Every structure is written in structure tokens, then in C-alpha cells.
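Justification of resources, computational component.

The compute hours requested in this renewal are based largely on the per-chain cost of generating structure records like the one below. Each record pairs the submitted sequence with a full C-alpha cell output. That output is archived, and it is also reused by downstream analysis tasks.
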Amino acid sequence: MKAIRVHETGPPEVLRLEDVPTPQPEPGQVLVRIKAVGVNPVETYVRSGKYPSSPSLPYTPGSDAAGVVESVGPGVTNIATGDRVYTAGTLAGAYAELALCSQSQIHRLPDNVSFEQGAGVNIPYATAYRALFFRARAQAGETVLIHGASGGVGIAATQIARAFGLHMIGTAGTERGRTLVKEQGAHEVLDHRELDYLNKVISLTGGRGVDIVLEMLANVNLARDLTILAKGGRVVVIGNRGTIELNPRDAMSRDAAILGMILFNATAQELASIHAGIGAGLENGSLRPVIGRKFSLAEAPRAHHAVIEPGAYGKIILIP
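The structure output for this chain reads:
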């Protein structure tokens, strides 16, 4: 089968399409024929060698995909050959024609959700869900600001927040992106390229500030995030690309909390709850992954360039 392999860390061009042996499922494992693969920013950090934990070289990147079960190993229950599924992690990487997974990494894909949409479920939606409910402890009626709401995690968070009864303010850097965020359910949308856009947050909340900020670029925004929080407000740091200087008094005066968040720290119990919630949202149509650009598997280097470019719009997908 064909798969992307990384033999050395470095720029996107280290992603190479190669022939590799087709894996065979062992007890408790599932082999999925991949129809679409989701590309996530974290995969660019791992590939570049700048992520705290990295797989042994060589490796095949990716955790998020959707497809059809090709075969199952002994002891697998509730999943059968031919089932439509999405993956929440893999054993051998998702940038491939076939992916080997443990049974716990497989979730059913409702018939009303396309394979391309299914490939955009796991990291974006699970990250957004965990940030809102397991870290920020969001309550219906609270106000949340989502930075970069036109990207994969941002769209997921927007849809989840709106479905749960939160008042949603989103930001995006392009007119196209802001239109998308509004379409996904945001009550207000701001242009984060305007110098005074965060001042508008105070006006939109009647001077109170927001209860929750989902922060996708903390090294740029975190210091100012603290100044727009309501008392007891929480900032959940989802993305960061450097260091920042901030004034702790801005947190102290508001009894505010800065909460770090990495999906890989989720417990098995959390993940079970997260995917139960996501599955229900996919089935009833309140969660609808939005697809942006699509690339062939051989174009994985281009996809890695695209996923970290400004002006995010939907989910970037690879098609094997």
C-alpha cells in the first residue's frame, strides 16, 4: 500500500510517499481502508522536531481519518467489516491507504456525515469539547470568545458552544472566514487583524467581559485576553508558538485562570464522554465539519504548508 513516511525531521518536504507492507490486524485491532485524512497543525510540529514528544523514525503521520473497515482481528466486537468509521488515533499513522487501529480508536460514522467530514472530526472536535467542558467547565448562558474561529478547532468550538447554549463571539482574519464563522452559529464576529478588535469585546458584553476565551495563538494574544475577562473568567490555551510577557495582576484582579490544554492528556474516561457527545452531535446535525482545501496523499507537503498559513478556512483534507 501507499503511505507517507518521515525518515528525518525537518520541513514539509521530508514527507515522502512510499510503498509499505499492508498491516494485518492482530487481536483487538481493526484495519481501515482510508477514504480521507485530516491534517492537523500538531502534525507539522511533530514533523519539524519541535514537539515535546515525537515518534521513532521513520514513521507515518496522522491520527484522524475516515473510511470503511477492511478487516478486524480476533476479539473485536461492535465493529465489523464494511462499517463506516472515523478514527481517533491510529497504531501506524493515518497518512496512508490503510490504517491499523485499536478497537478503542474506532468510532462509527453516521450515514449523514461524509468521509471527508469524518476525517475532520477527531482532533478538532475532541479538542474543542475538552477545552469547553473538561477544562473551562462551561455553563449554558456564559459568553465565550473563540480566537481563529474559522479554522478546524474554531469551527468545532463554535458549533459546540452554540448547541450548548453559550453566547459565542468568534474572530477571523478574512471576510470569507468571518462569513463562515457567522454561518456556523456565532452571535458576533470580529476581525482579529484590526488593532482594537478586543476592545469591541468589552462593548459587546456591556462592559462585563467574557467568561471563557479559547486561545489558538497564546504567544500573540494571551496578555490581552486577561484584560477582557469577566470576574472568574478562564482562558484555555489550545495553541501557542512562542513566549509572551504578561501582567499577573490582570488575572489576580479578576480571579481569572489560565488553563493549558493538550488533547493527548485526556483520560480514557474523558475520551469516552467526548466521543459520545460528538457522536450525538454528528447524528442530529448540530456538528457539521466544514471542509476547506483538499490535496492528494502525494501532496502532503503542500498540505503541511497550507495548514499553518494565516486565513484558515475549514479543515484541510488528504485524499488517498
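The longest strand covers residues 29-39. The chain is about 30% helix and 25% strand.
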